């Protein structure tokens, strides 16, 4: 049969073909036509060549991508895939062929603005895109932050800042089994929290051939439907497990006449791989990058002469120049888990999904699945190495024994409680595999809302998606409640906040007042001399700065800092008093949504800026729209999609993305879902081909 491309009323592609390979070709083709600019940005980011057209602002990422060997790792993983999974490798090649055919028609305005011509994808490019998208998901730079905290405060202080912070990505997800639904069949719902990007990081798509018929959210540049899918008889969804599966090693390197050597744990200096690469930078001179790889992994910070710009490692009192290497599973195993993708599409029951996720590698996720026969699944999927506990906490010395990897953890599993399972990056089934997890507020709130009704339907789920109750406000409000002797203006503000319903609604003036007081407290705590040593991070590359900046760290850990028994001599009641007096003198004039606005990341800012809509929600709300307390209310993270999978009738499922199905500015489907996303509404999932409009045959 001919491969057919259809669209629904929202421009979402529905593809029908005679085989899985033909369907992969069509998926690549339509993705390139809809999102040519996005695909090319992602290809260049995976290769470490994005500065060649984006300029100096992209150089920090390109340096990291080169030094971390992302493109080389993708090549290795694809070569391994061809050996182990030849059918999957051919399927990936078919997708890449489709992308190349679609890129030939790429006409996004950004190409003309930058002078970029769409290039050619290689068979391993989708693996590079996947790796570049997820390499920072496990938050290994947090280990650099912990080193700073331990050096300038003490090791006990690490726990004060342990929370889902500015550089991580999370999600909500919940599974309601058939015993708790009006249909007797399960419902799965949730929303992945990621950087909100334009175009979006998820692509709504429908893939149909004689082997399978699946709707779901694809990652542009990667074939199939990995994270969120519904085959009609089984559905699945994931959240970030917050597992720790990447290690940082402090390396001692030395130059020799033959190159570079690294000191190993057996006390022997061994030759490290070394070469130099050149990064082209638009409008600037090219930059040379030295790429070094030891027996632990690629060196991502510093070199034989020490840390970049600073030869002394603050965590090493010996004063010996030190570099830092990264060890991550795909670099070690040559496997990115792409062997799971075709089995997921072919899944018919929970057992099929379970077996597919046995082949999952990165990132490590918590998976929920349900099928029409009553089967349910709640498990962790991905590869986490067994090693010393210190590896998970800190940067460990490569020259000392005891830090090698010793096989892999068995993926934990969990059951349902009262017919429900909730995952929201809390310390749940993946607890033994991680260090820092999200506070329990989102998970507890979702569980409480689900417990409030005996029977649920798919139609009731958006009310959970959009809940704005902020449980993490309690510590600050408790401090306010204990204050006396305030000025009349501050006392009135305190009493108003104590009567606030704790909902971070865009139209709430009280939410705006609370956020203003919170921000003032964060800034005062961060400015205290006790934290002075944390205000200036070491000379680490810019790509790691979100994990090292003090104000965001204080902002996201405020709950812990206010509740700690003692905080290095900081007078917290005095800080809270000064903050509320400050806000009482200059209160915000408007509503929470006036400053809490959507600020999507774009590789290239549009020539005609868009209005930034006001948002409800906050970091610890179920409606998780994250600014950075103490720094900005503008939200760069939030629900990158919402979904409701109904196992009774797939046609009763719903979904939405923040902007639209098209990545082309000016397209009628570039931003047409934004009003629905803002309102908490969802788009119907359409699978009836008679209700679709045929676009073309290919």
Outline of the structure:
The chain is of the alpha+beta class and about 700 residues long.
CATH class of the largest domain: Alpha Beta
Secondary-structure-derived class = alpha+beta
Helix percentage: 25-40%
> What's the story with the biggest beta sheet?
9 strands, mixed
- CATH topology descriptor of the largest domain: Glutamine Phosphoribosylpyrophosphate, subunit 1, domain 1
Low-pLDDT stretches are: none
Q: What's the end-to-end separation, in Å?
A: 10 Å
Q: How would the global form be characterised? A: globular
Strand order of the largest sheet: 17-16-8-7-6-5-2-1-25
InterPro entries: Ntn_hydrolases_N, Pen/GL7ACA/AHL_acylase, Penicillin_amidase_A-knob, Penicillin_amidase_dom1, Penicillin_amidase_N_B-knob, S45
Protein name: Penicillin amidase
Keywords: Calcium, Hydrolase, Metal-binding, Zymogen
Cofactor: Ca(2+)
Output the keywords:
nine-stranded mixed beta sheet; eight-stranded antiparallel beta sheet; globular; alpha+beta; 3 domains; Penicillin amidase (Acylase) alpha subunit, N-terminal domain; Glutamine Phosphoribosylpyrophosphate, subunit 1, domain 1; 698 residues; Penicillin G acylase, beta-roll domain
Kindly describe this structure.
The structure is a single chain. With 698 residues, this protein is of the alpha+beta class. The chain folds into 3 domains: 4-135 and 168-245 and 333-443 and 638-694, Glutamine Phosphoribosylpyrophosphate, subunit 1, domain 1; 139-167 and 469-502 and 509-590, Penicillin amidase (Acylase) alpha subunit, N-terminal domain; 247-327, Aminohydrolase, N-terminal nucleophile (Ntn) domain, beta-sheet knob region (Penicillin G acylase, beta-roll domain, Roll). 31% of the residues lie in helices and 19% in strands. The protein contains 23 helices and 25 strands. The strands form 4 sheets. A 9-stranded mixed sheet has the order 17-16-8-7-6-5-2-1-25. The protein is globular and about 80 Å long. The mean pLDDT is 95. GO terms for molecular function: hydrolase activity, acting on carbon-nitrogen (but not peptide) bonds, in linear amides; metal ion binding. InterPro entries: Ntn_hydrolases_N, Pen/GL7ACA/AHL_acylase, Penicillin_amidase_A-knob, Penicillin_amidase_dom1, Penicillin_amidase_N_B-knob, S45. This is Penicillin amidase. Belongs to the peptidase S45 family.
